[in-house]
Amino acid sequence: MDNPRLQTVLRKVKERASNKSELKDCHIHVCSENNFPTAAGLASSAAGYACLVSALTKLFNVQGNVTDIARLGSGSACRSLDGGFVEWTMGEKDSGEDSTGKQIVTEDHWPEMRIIILVVSGKKKAIGSSKGMLRSTQTSPFLKHRADKVVPDNMKKMQAAIKSKDFPAFAEVTMKESNQLHSVCQDTYPPISYMNDTSWSIVRLVHAYNEYKGQIKVAYTFDAGPNAVLYLLKESVSEVLAFINHVFPPPNNQEKHLYFKGLPSESNHEVTKATLNSVLSMEPQQNAVKYIIHTKVGPGAQEITNEAASLLDENGLPKL
Amino acid sequence: MDNPRLQTVLRKVKERASNKSELKDCHIHVCSENNFPTAAGLASSAAGYACLVSALTKLFNVQGNVTDIARLGSGSACRSLDGGFVEWTMGEKDSGEDSTGKQIVTEDHWPEMRIIILVVSGKKKAIGSSKGMLRSTQTSPFLKHRADKVVPDNMKKMQAAIKSKDFPAFAEVTMKESNQLHSVCQDTYPPISYMNDTSWSIVRLVHAYNEYKGQIKVAYTFDAGPNAVLYLLKESVSEVLAFINHVFPPPNNQEKHLYFKGLPSESNHEVTKATLNSVLSMEPQQNAVKYIIHTKVGPGAQEITNEAASLLDENGLPKL
């Protein structure tokens, strides 16, 4: 328990506990397991703190919205307690206490939505996202303009797109928000680069595919790391996987289930080599992508029994 | 003469000719030679059009500032007619006719200034700079903010820094301007990336070196391509080359003069391996940099005789 953030979270939970006297002499043993690349810009700390806060608040019988407590562990953890699509509201207070997570729709709202994560590198980030964001706040002339003028408008568009299940609108805002986040990182001094050459190949692949289809069928987003998170509808998965396979083929000697994880990732789509070459004009890049996770929008933090846990694979998805 | 921009330039030169009748029946044979990587974001077209306009306006005896004609060939060519440090004024007219080049100081003003160009890739750009800039104008929410709020202020700072030979101020504006240009490219939709992983290694090298020295001793700038242009004072060249050599060593079997071009690039600086490793913590990247040009601020377009030309090496510098 040397981690100061963890201590802050625990103190806050205890403050709101409704069974303080009952537990006041108890010590707490936390055992945390994780099946996701850490410190790679894939919100692993958000997932971890969401679980921790969910478990602790259950133990201490804390009532009401506890996303503000999760936020003290990792900013984005306030989005990870609920399932479905969650908004991180900015809030107005300097203390940040009204900056919380708010569910927009549940995980059942848009069942066709799929997510393909291309894990480019599990290496530790050159600069952590909290430290990076602080440096951007202090030095980027663009950040204030973005916060004042661009984000509020995009938040409205995004909410409307999710509620009405308008995929092209959802996808365009997703890509533009990702681009502008990294634009601010580049405008920071000294500048920050989370995306690498492989990330940019994925950006080009996505735009080339959408242009080929004549409409936006897949979106990318990059967080504080080089890994890509692609959003697409179930109907597009097979064809998009054919394009991904063309540019990022699995390593020759790797077993298929070590490269494709999560939901089945069969590409049955009949797309010819000639089409792939003319649409993409990109050389295959073996080993640029480490592995691929195919998943979908899920529920939030869950309490599971040991028995239930044994039925899940290493991605937290039901064993096939 | 199928090139429409070349025709525009020639027509404009003829309009302003003061010896029209004399030359009206002459055909013009243009022979252009170039010793710089083309379409790599190193302003090769600016150099070419500056030469062409300089030669044509001499032939047609055009008087006065002709940078507006050069700009019709390649925007940045209006900066390349004069030597020293040149400002590209924005102008106010929609036609762009008052957007011209204006010399700030001559090439003798700051004789200590040196330039080291790391040629990362001679490959053709994914998107040309004119086309890219047009797309940014149409789609980047940041570009207008940059043009209105950031550039005018930086232009003032830059002029003052050059006139007073304030290297740290010059260097900081140079790096921030480069970062923000590429930030706008990233904010464009679809986004544009001219820098690659090697470019980012150079950015990290420069910031690490400056931090080690406790003050800004070297600056980077990237144009519409992955190649880095470094600015530094003569006194820093030897030590900076030791750092560059550590991360980007010459290929094993390449002759030294093919890797280091231009001014002598001896690194006599006694910097230990241990220092290099602790300052940079970067692995050597052989073959990431193709070659290195060491040069300085020079004069503008020059008329030279064949005899004089034979005394210059392939970089346009006096043969050693």
From TrEMBL, chains A, B:
GO biological process, one term: sterol biosynthetic process
Enzyme class per UniProt: lyase
Catalytic activities: (R)-5-diphosphomevalonate + ATP = isopentenyl diphosphate + ADP + phosphate + CO2
All residue ranges annotated as the Mvd1 C-terminal domain in the record: 115-302
Source taxon at top rank: Eukaryota
Coiled coil regions, renumbered to chain: none
GO cellular component annotations of the record: cytosol
Classification via Pfam families: MDD_C, MVD-like_N
Family annotation (InterPro entries): GHMP_kinase_C_sf (IPR036554), Mev_decarb (IPR005935), Mev_diP_decarb (IPR029765), MVD-like_N (IPR053859), Mvd1_C (IPR041431), Ribosomal_Su5_D2-typ_SF (IPR020568), Ribsml_uS5_D2-typ_fold_subgr (IPR014721)
Residues covered by the Diphosphomevalonate decarboxylase-like N-terminal domain: 3-99
Keywords: ATP-binding, Lipid biosynthesis, Lipid metabolism, Lyase, Nucleotide-binding, Steroid biosynthesis, Steroid metabolism, Sterol biosynthesis, Sterol metabolism
Enzyme Commission numbers on file: 4.1.1.33
GO MF annotation, one: ATP binding
Family: Belongs to the diphosphomevalonate decarboxylase family.
Role summary: Catalyzes the ATP dependent decarboxylation of (R)-5-diphosphomevalonate to form isopentenyl diphosphate (IPP). Functions in the mevalonate (MVA) pathway leading to isopentenyl diphosphate (IPP), a key precursor for the biosynthesis of isoprenoids and sterol synthesis.
Protein name (record): Diphosphomevalonate decarboxylase
Species of provenance: Stichopus japonicus
